[in-house]
Amino acid sequence: MTAWHTRTPEEVADLATRLRAIDWTWQITEIDQIAQRFGWKVISSKPAWALLDTGLGPASGKAFADNGQVERLHVDASTIGPDTSEGRTEVHAAYSAMARTLVATLGPPTTEIIGDLEELRWAGPHSTLLLQELARSIKLSLVTNEWLTGFDHRVELSRQGQL
Question: Taken in order 101, 104, 105, 109, is the CA torsion positive or negative?
Fold first, then answer.
């Protein structure tokens, strides 16, 4: 097994600031220009998605589009950690450090989801930045507000047993 790696909190804050500056009218066909702008490598690109190497290995970045219009861009803030209680503790500690640095850089989040897995959201006029603590990794995403509204609605329906 390879060692667990994370971006530093400062790298995450810089990346978050740069992601928020993306104009969300871009198409998946422009993934090469976005990748070049961030120093990433396009691994594979299709009409509905693209896989990127953002510095933490192949598929450490993903873009998803609907009818060519990009709706989501996910960038790993860490690789997948060990499936142990110590590993989950390390993931949470790294997430907490990243969260503190993002709050200091971007200001308070507009939404904070607290539970077994935590999430912070900074909403903008057209897109929302998310920092998510997953079971064994951390992800930084920029999603369109329209997509996020639909996602949240589906999550709520699932919680109610309607999906």
Answer: positive
